[in-house]
Amino acid sequence: MAPIRATALALAAGLALSACSVDDGKGKAAGPVPSDKQLTIGFVNGNTIEFHTCLQNALQARASRAGVKVLTANSAMDPAKELSNIDDMIVKRVDAIVVQTVNIDSLEGGISRANRAGIPIFLTSVASVDQSKILGAVVTDVKKVGRDLGAWLAEDSKGKPAEVGIIGGAPGAAADLMNDAFKQSLGGDSKVVFDQPAFWQRAKAQDVAENLLQARPKVRYVFVHNEDMALGVLAAFKAAGRDDIKILTNGGSAAGVKAVKDGEFAVTVSNTPKSVGELAVDNVVGLLRGTKGVQKIATVPDVVVTSDNASKAPPYCS
Question: Among residues 114, 111, 64, which one has the least CA distance to residue 94?
């Protein structure tokens, strides 16, 4: 992936383009948008947890600096609401719709409707759809997150058999991709003995963790899909006096990195929503303007954070 700074420079250069905008009916611009036309982006967010809030704030701040108007909507983890939000953005005739999807399968209907209306769709965090039907995407490589954490566990367990628990997000989209990659990278020495979703909710994750301790008291590692849920899991383990269980998680938030520094989380992966939001604006505008060198599918870099490098973790929100 090209550095964000380089993309921003390319974006600035692309503002000089002035041809007419035409959509090809497949979600991608067939010609650049005139440089004197103010762009309006519709952003359909998927939730209101810290990741989603930081993502929206970063996207809006970057858009403001670029002179781009942003209309927002939130789907509250409801696929039907997401489809309704996309319909609303179509009615408002935005220049592009950026979607942080609730469920990649249900997103297909929204993409089809936007394509028929001639409005390109751009995705954040995942891009596991027919990429000919979208303008582009800025993704967190959730498969790599899963692989990295699985590989860390395999090395940490030193080849000894270990029981592993998973407390996931919501079935569908990023959670399934991350889960599958994690399981595949464990090798034959460790075994997943518990796998339940907590729907990205800290309180629910705490409840699921309590169930895990009852069902599988010998568990040694628990992979929790994000740090907010991991803090709920940590509370359950502390209450049970189980500081022997290693928590593996994902996010890179200030609270998550602090938990790594304090030895409460064993490891996290930093892939910040700040970077996703900023790069989404840069690339949507660049692709609409016809800027050369802007990637259709761009990947946000991530960092495996342990106690050894936690002091150098990148900022999460600002």
Answer: 114
Take residue 311 and report the two structure tokens written for it.
């002091």
pLDDT in tens, 80-125: 999 999 999 999 999 999 999 998 888 999 999 999 999 999 999 8
Give Cα separations from 91 to 54, 86, 97, 294, 311 (angstroms). Answer: 27, 9, 12, 28, 47
pLDDT in tens, 256-315: 999 999 999 999 999 899 999 999 999 999 999 999 999 999 999 899 999 999 999 988
Residue with tokens 């010609």: 31
Tokens of 213: 């301790």
User: Global pTM?
Assistant: 0.74
Task: Report in angstroms the alpha-carbon separations of 267 from 101, 128, 145, 270, 301.
Answer: 26, 27, 11, 10, 17
Cβ contacts of 26 within 8 Å, gap of 6 or more: 115, 132, 133
Unique residue bearing structure tokens 């249900």: 106
6 versus 96: the higher-pLDDT residue is 96
The Cα-based distances of 64 to 3, 41, 59, 132, 260 in angstroms read: 20, 11, 9, 29, 34
| Residue 178 token pair | 């991350």
Residues pairing with 43 in the sheet: 72, 98
